[in-house]
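Reading is simple: each integer encodes one residue's backbone shape. An example follows:

___
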Amino acid sequence: MIEHIEEIPKLSSREFAKRTYTSATSIIRFIKKLGYSNYNEFKYNIGNVLKNLSINNYSINLGEDNISLINKTAQLEIDVIKQMKEMLSITTLNKIIELLETTNYLDIIANDTNAMIAKYTAHCFSNVGKIVTVYHETDKQL
């Protein structure tokens, strides 16, 4: 799903289900768990995120000097933090905090570098008494 995220706005829920080896009903339940009221709202949101994501400013060219690489990396981090700040409301943050306070078990599904970050996150949550399972193998992410 993440590797082909740019295709999601063009897919019906049935086609999305077919490509992820699940049912359309499971997709709709998943979308609702993410906080969307329906599949079209989810597709619209994904489309907006992709539209606002400008990768061209961060592309690295062969032979580019080190200063340019450092500047692009720093700018990328700044832009990601700004974008997160714009997207995250106080209401959503409070809901996340409430959910984290009331649960003892967390499941994190992640790939590649994100899996390493997830493992670190699991370690941090274990310090406050939360039991976290990180699923990073593709066959366990069903």
Residues 114 and 136 are 9 Å apart (CA to CA). Residues 1-53 form one domain.
